[in-house]
């Protein structure tokens, strides 16, 4: 399966953070994602995952709901409440027979839910879609910021032009008064 990423043009593959308390599954998942061309960082707990996010930015987080200590649902809430990371795409992994966890994941702010065990090609497609959406949102945000800056520049230019027009009108009135005074 051929997957392409928007960041390839920048010469950099997306960096994923995978968080799972099961070392074996964490290893399998990270190896498979690396085979799809992703750069993968791993963590075995929510706290270690958050520390990794602050250590080096990630393009997406994939986190198991069943973590020791802070679980994946709580981690999702922490990420969504964090102004630095709130826009990072987040997929939560839930057990196949746990629809309540899937609902809780979405309520906590997950962008998607993957059931365990997952089909890796489906997971890769889901990741590519989320990364594409995040990239589009980033471009939209950047475009909006650029438009806002242009609007501010135009408003400043308009005010300067209005001030020049007012000064010119005042000068015209002054000269007209001088001319009218001489004509009388």
Brief synopsis:
The protein has 184 residues and is α/β, with parallel strands linked by helices.
Q: H/E series, N to C?
A: EHEHEHEHEH
- Oligomer class: single chain
- Poorly predicted tracts of residues: 1-10
Radius of gyration: 27 Å
Strand order of the largest sheet: 2-1-3-4-5
InterPro entries: CheY-like_superfamily (IPR011006), Sig_transdc_resp-reg_receiver (IPR001789), WalR-like (IPR039420)
Pfam family, one: Response_reg
Modified residues (4-aspartylphosphate): 64
Protein name: Response regulator
Features:
single chain; 184 residues; alpha/beta; Rossmann fold; 5-stranded parallel beta sheet; 5 strands; 14% strand; rod-shaped; disordered N terminus
Walk me through what this model shows:
Keywords: DNA-binding, Phosphoprotein, Transcription, Transcription regulation, Two-component regulatory system. Residues 15-131 form the Response regulatory domain. InterPro entries: CheY-like_superfamily (IPR011006), Sig_transdc_resp-reg_receiver (IPR001789), WalR-like (IPR039420). It comes from Sphingomonas anseongensis. The protein is α/β, with parallel strands linked by helices and 184 residues long. It has one domain: Rossmann fold. The chain is 58% helix and 14% strand. It has 5 helices and 5 strands; from the N terminus they run βαβαβαβαβα. It has helices at 23-35, 46-55, 72-81, 99-108, 120-183; strands at 15-19, 39-43, 60-64, 90-95, 112-116. It has a 5-stranded parallel sheet with strand order 2-1-3-4-5, with helices on both faces. Mean pLDDT is 89; it is low at 1-10.
């Amino acid at each position: 399966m051929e997957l392409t990423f928007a960041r390839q043009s920048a010469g950099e593959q997306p960096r994923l953070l995978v968080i799972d308390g099961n070392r074996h599954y964490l290893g399998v998942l990270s190896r498979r994602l690396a085979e799809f061309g992703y750069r993968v960082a791993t963590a075995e707990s929510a706290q270690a995952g958050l520390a990794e996010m602050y250590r080096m930015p990630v393009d997406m987080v994939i986190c198991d709901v069943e973590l020791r200590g802070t679980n994946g649902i709580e981690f999702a809430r922490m990420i969504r409440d964090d102004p630095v990371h709130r826009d990072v795409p987040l997929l939560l992994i839930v057990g196949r027979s746990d629809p309540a966890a899937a609902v809780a994941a979405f309520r906590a702010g997950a962008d998607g839910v993957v059931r365990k065990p997952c089909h890796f090609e489906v997971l890769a497609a889901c990741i590519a879609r989320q990364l594409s959406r995040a990239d589009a949102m980033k471009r939209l945000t950047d475009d909006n910021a650029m438009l806002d800056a242009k609007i501010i520049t135009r408003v400043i230019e308009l005010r300067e032009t209005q001030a020049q027009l007012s000064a010119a009108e005042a000068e015209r009135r002054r000269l007209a008064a001088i001319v009218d005074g001489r004509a009388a």
